[in-house]
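sry for the spam today, last one i promise. struct tokens for design, 181 residues
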């Protein structure tokens, strides 16, 4: 009997034991924090993902649940040069190992190349995908070449500069000294 796995409530141990695959697309609107980064644009943009479960034997001979996960999307962000919209491809591909407790995950995550997470009977895979995509966002998204010339002036054309010659402060003091008392 083939088990149907759901990304929002993934039983990690069963998923890994079955060496199952889970492939899907979700609308960006389902990823609240990612949608905030796009300022509400692109709610219908698809986030594609693929997860594969596996059991691997550790050094002590104990089987541990693993998951290989990758995801990608093209997000409409704001260009930091021209402040216009720019489509930025983001993606990741990573392995995750699952352990029994949070304390064990903290200790082993420091020593491991792979990410170590806590085993859960109802793991939300979409939250993990969102976390990982958020970490891949560029600090300053920008076009390779902006579609419009970038305005590099500080002042508007109607702005009048201050007079070129400033009065000498000592001359002003001299005028004050000469003023009638």
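last one done:
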């Amino acid at each position: 009997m083939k088990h149907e796995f759901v990304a929002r409530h993934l039983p990690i141990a069963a998923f890994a034991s079955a060496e199952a695959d889970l492939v899907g697309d979700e609308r960006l609107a389902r990823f609240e924090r990612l949608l905030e980064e796009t300022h509400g644009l692109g709610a219908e943009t698809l986030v594609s993902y693929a997860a594969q479960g596996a059991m691997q034997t550790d050094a002590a001979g104990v089987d541990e649940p693993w998951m290989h996960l990758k995801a990608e999307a093209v997000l409409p962000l704001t260009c930091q040069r021209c402040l216009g919209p720019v489509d930025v491809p983001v993606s990741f591909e990573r392995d995750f190992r699952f352990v029994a407790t949070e304390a064990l995950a903290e200790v082993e995550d420091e020593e491991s190349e792979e990410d170590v997470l806590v085993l859960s009977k109802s793991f939300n895979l979409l939250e993990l995908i969102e976390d990982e995509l958020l970490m891949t966002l560029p600090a300053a998204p920008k076009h390779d070449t902006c579609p419009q010339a970038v305005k590099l002036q500080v002042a508007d054309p109607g702005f009048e500069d201050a007079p070129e010659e400033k009065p000498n402060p000592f001359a002003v003091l001299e005028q004050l000294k000469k003023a009638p008392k």
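The radius of gyration is 29 Å. ok im logging off now
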